[in-house]
Structures are given as C-alpha cells and as structure tokens.
Amino acid sequence: MYVILVYDIEEKRVAKMLKLCRRYLNWIQNSVFEGEITDVKLKELIHEARKIMDKEADSLIVFKSRQAKWLEKMVIGKEKNELDNIL
Amino acid sequence: MYVILVYDIEEKRVAKMLKLCRRYLNWIQNSVFEGEITDVKLKELIHEARKIMDKEADSLIVFKSRQAKWLEKMVIGKEKNELDNIL
C-alpha cells in the first residue's frame, strides 16, 4: 500500500516524530512523507506516533492508496528531499 | 479530480498562500488541503501559487487522484479544520 503522511506537531515533539516517520517512509517536505508500506508496518508507525503525540494539540493524517499509480505527484518549486536522500 | 496539496512556504509569504489555497480547496491541517477540483481550476491555482512562491525557497506538492474513493483518509489526534468549516 502507498501512503502520504502529514503531521502538525508542536515543536518540542517534532524531532521525535520526524525520526520515527523517516524510519518507515520517505521525507518529501517539511512535515510530509510518502512511500510504500505494509498494513502491519503502518499500524506499528501509528502506534509509535500516538506515544509521541499530544492528541489534544497534535495532528497526524494518513492518506492510503492501494496503488501508487493511482496518485500522480506534481512538485512545484524547491524539492526539499534532495539532501535527505544522501544523508 | 481529487487532490491533496501540501506546501512549505516561508513565513512572510504563507498568509497569501493560505488565502489562495482556501479559495480552491478545504484546509485540513496547518499546510495541507484537500478537495475536488477541475483540471482548469487546478492549473489556475498553481499559476497563482507560482506568483506568490519563491521557487528557490518554497515548495508546493500536489497529489492528484482521479477519484476520491481511491484514497482512504485516517486522522489521528486533533482535527484542525473544525473551526475552519465555521469561519
């Protein structure tokens, strides 16, 4: 399954969340990730994310698509993940 | 067509971008929008966005899906757009 994950997390928790999401998905913009992931791994990611998040303040949205080809991606402006692929 | 739009824009330009995107799509998280939009309207939105953006610094990503039903959305934590629907 292919997912797009976006979060809005308070600054003090954002570093942990970034690190967690990068273990499972590709970082494509400030707080946006994408990638192929299994159901089991996605459940694991969400489970770990809930531990980091303050559910009254933070938000996490996951869009799931059964196939990547059903989504067409357009990037306008700067591609933020150039360095990320190297590091 | 159904789209998810995410941006990462420098603070001094973000208010303009937010206002622009809200004219075309539903605001669902800090810098994330979704909604049904025609090809023509999307082109118009991107054209206007380019005028606001500094392409060396800012980033805009649009995921297009021919049908909303191909995407399943999960929201964890706070739903940020509750107020937005009222305002």
UniProtKB/TrEMBL annotation, chains A, B:
It comes from the Bacteria. The keyword Metal-binding applies. Its EC number is 3.1.-.-. Its cofactor is Mg(2+). Keywords: Antiviral defense, Endonuclease, Hydrolase, Magnesium, Metal-binding, Nuclease. Pfam families: CRISPR_Cas2 (PF09827). GO terms for biological process: defense response to virus; maintenance of CRISPR repeat elements. SUPFAM superfamilies: TTP0101/SSO1404-like (SSF143430). It is an enzyme of class 3 (hydrolase). CDD domains: Cas2_I_II_III. One of its GO terms (molecular function) is hydrolase activity. Mg(2+) binds at residue 8. CRISPR (clustered regularly interspaced short palindromic repeat), is an adaptive immune system that provides protection against mobile genetic elements (viruses, transposable elements and conjugative plasmids). CRISPR clusters contain sequences complementary to antecedent mobile elements and target invading nucleic acids. CRISPR clusters are transcribed and processed into CRISPR RNA (crRNA). Functions as a ssRNA-specific endoribonuclease. Involved in the integration of spacer DNA into the CRISPR cassette. Belongs to the CRISPR-associated endoribonuclease Cas2 protein family. Homodimer, forms a heterotetramer with a Cas1 homodimer. This is CRISPR-associated endoribonuclease Cas2.
